[in-house]
Amino acid sequence: MKPEKVITVVQATSILVSTIVGVGVLPLPLFAVTAAESGAPFATVVAMSIASVGLVIVTMLGMRFPKLTFPELSERIIGKWLAAPMTLLIIAFFAVLTALAAREFGTVVVTSVLKNTPIEVTVFVMLLLAALSARADVRSFSYMHMFYLPVVLVPALIIAGLSLKNSNLLYLMPIFGNRRPDFFGGVFTIAALFQGYFIMTTVIPFMRRPKKAMIASVFGMGIAGGLYLLLVVAVVAVFGPMETKNLLWPTLELAKTTALPANVLERLDAAFLSVWVTAVFTTLLSSYFLTVRNMNELLRLKDHKPFTFFMLPFVFLIAMLPENVLNLYQVIEIVGRIGLILTLLYPGALLLIAALRGLRGEAA
Amino acid sequence: MRTLVTAILSVSALLLLTGCWDRLEIEERAVVLSIAIDAADPEVVEKESMVNSKNRKSEHSIPVPEGKTVRVTAQIAVPGRIPLGPGGSSGSGGSSGGGNPVWVLESYGYTIDEALQSMQQEVADRMFFGHLRVIVMSEEYARRGTGNLSDYLRRNPEVRRLAWLVVSKEEAAQYMRTAPQLERVPALYLLSTMDHAVQMGKYPMEPIGSFWIKMSSLGQEANLPYLELQEKNNVRLSGLAYFKGEKLVGVTQPLEVGLFMGLSGSEQGGYSSYVRIPDSEETAMFRVSNRRSKTRAYIKNGRPAVEVTVFLEGNLTEASDQGKGNLNTQEDLQKIGKDLSDRFSDRYVTFIRYMQKKESDIFGYGEYIRAHEPAYWNRHIRTKARWQSAFKDMDVKVNVTFDIRRVGQKAQ
């Protein structure tokens, strides 16, 4: 199949940013302080570097085969019989990731805003919305991301910025943390929050100039990582590492303590939640899109639309599996770390083999 | 066909997205403005609690927390009776006038939640805590420990982190019933007491969120405003209630709140001090207008030590029997400023020493040690309990500079 070349560098960047920034912003500071207490920003930076390595690998792989989608290029490199099961694993992984993100979203909404609404409804509606939107072609897909990106970024920056007036620099010191209770465990959990970067594999074949994919990657990771880092710094500086440990969704709590100047709005959590719904939506859209596109390419079909609703019941069922909120976060942690193997080590191995075998796709 | 399916799905999404399950008309909410927590008599609780003693006799009974009983008094806004805007009862409203704007209810239980549950049994509408602005707890309750209350409030997403938690000398329930002259809604009067204290530099801006942050910090103890009820239903902010862990251990003098604010460098100054005018028997009154402080924590002879520099700016507000003392030249003011600096540094040190004796580090010097001397902290401290005892033997040094800026609009 010959992909149409429609995506510009700016669009690729915004897809990357709005895919990465998602439901994870809420518990992120909690993950970071459990890793390193006051060293939370440091842990975030380390996690970001790990994710950046993965992103660079994926981007280099995509640039090496600018016309091929990920399932196609992996077949080219390691052969059909090895690549197909791996692709299937990736499809399954992103289906699970979509499900977990939807479930996490539902949990937050049901706990803090719509307390009487059944969680099945919030989760299902969100998944339905993602499925409906994932039927779009690549062009509309990229427009959706570009359209929503400012809606996500600007308010998040405002909340983080305004909250800094209550901050206490002591809480960020020592920068490596007094104790590092579970440093690498925590770092991997945070790195897993960046896993949306895998969307680059789907984006690059559709880029007008795949040669510039690396620019999009660097900016995308810079913006998303910068936002994550800013939120961690703001939360820890305001609450202190010990209080952050007591909060299930510290970022939401931050929005709750932050008031607009002159008390225009005394608490920003309602505003923050509506923004965050958008952020979750774009993330779900991407991971859903990734799942169905990869399925489509694995089976060599013309159109990915039939899969969107076919997948819905499965994703929904997976989303409903975790028993409670604590169990949910256990599962998210485990799945996230397994995912690092799929999104970091597997493309790394592919790139290595491609380089050793001297394989290269024709230029776009 | 496919378009039809898509259309149906989109319409159903639209319908589902409205969140109908949580629709709650505003007049169907019982808006709780303020609650009071008191320690209760176990016998009364036994009778009033939803878990009665018969239930607890058998082996498979409902377990209740031992020895912890509370009385919760809530102030619920009565819709239509809250005066909107100025005017009050004197006219315009007509039908809305008259009657108490709030409804005060009380209930008992072993925990806060249980008491509120049993209160809900008496209220037709669902109680709503989104507008809860002031939580009063009695000193007696606070001395027993605040963990229960904090836990309940933290878990409830409706409660704001910007609500005030205050400690009362008397029974907290009284604060729900007082009807002060300036404001028809008692809760709002309490709220403006606190808000204005912050504006006038009488108390730092430390609502319940800051209380929780300090309580969780390893190198710091929490503090709360301490209120006292006066004769005519008026409320006096009369000190700082300080904690050790989750328990209240003591209360300071009202003026010591100013010392606390100076040491922590809260900018807006609001307290005054007497000083003797040099070469005379007269005294003058100076009001601090701005404060700033710098804290340096270090390790001296293997022990934590702290050096605080407090910068104060102030104005002359009153001289007793003026004319006899000399207050007319810059040199006089400088001399007095020097005198004030010495006195203040003495008072600051005394205050810190007093808090050290109580093992309550409300200044957060432990946090400075944790942040700046991590090696020492990691080797010797690490826990809150160990900091409490290390704080006791900490070496303290305070430097003060007091600059007098203005003398008001009176020459001579």
From TrEMBL, chain A:
Provide GO CC annotations from the record: membrane
Q: Looking at the record's lineage, which domain of life comes first?
A: Bacteria
Q: What is its main location?
A: membrane
Kindly list the places in or outside the cell where this protein is found, as annotated in its UniProt entry: Membrane
Note the topology in the membrane: Multi-pass membrane protein
Name the Pfam families on file: Spore_permease
Which regions span the lipid bilayer? 12-36, 42-61, 81-102, 117-134, 146-164, 184-206, 218-240, 270-292, 304-322, 334-356
Q: Name one GO biological process term.
A: spore germination
Keyword terms:
Germination, Membrane, Transmembrane, Transmembrane helix, Transport
Q: Which InterPro entries does the annotation name?
A: Spore_GerAB (IPR004761)
Q: Which family does it belong to?
A: Belongs to the amino acid-polyamine-organocation (APC) superfamily. Spore germination protein (SGP) (TC 2.A.3.9) family.
Protein name from the UniProt record: Spore gernimation protein
Q: Species name for this entry? A: Paenibacillus antri
Automatic annotation (TrEMBL), chain B:
Q: How does it sit in the membrane?
A: Lipid-anchor
Where in or outside the cell?
A: Membrane
Q: Which GO terms describe its biological process?
A: spore germination
Q: What's the chief localization of this chain?
A: membrane
Q: Domain named Spore germination protein N-terminal: which ranges?
A: 22-228
- Matching InterPro entries: GerAC_N (IPR057336), Spore_GerAC-like (IPR008844), Spore_GerAC-like_C (IPR046953), Spore_GerAC_C_sf (IPR038501)
- Spore germination GerAC-like C-terminal domain location is 238-408
Membrane-spanning intervals of the chain: none
Q: What UniProt keywords are attached to this protein's entry? A: Germination, Lipoprotein, Membrane, Palmitate, Signal
Please provide, in alphabetical order, the Gene Ontology terms of the cellular component aspect for this entry: membrane
Q: Which PANTHER family match?
A: SPORE GERMINATION PROTEIN B3
Family, per entry? Belongs to the GerABKC lipoprotein family.
Protein name (record): Ger(X)C family spore germination protein
What organism does the record attribute this protein to?
Paenibacillus antri
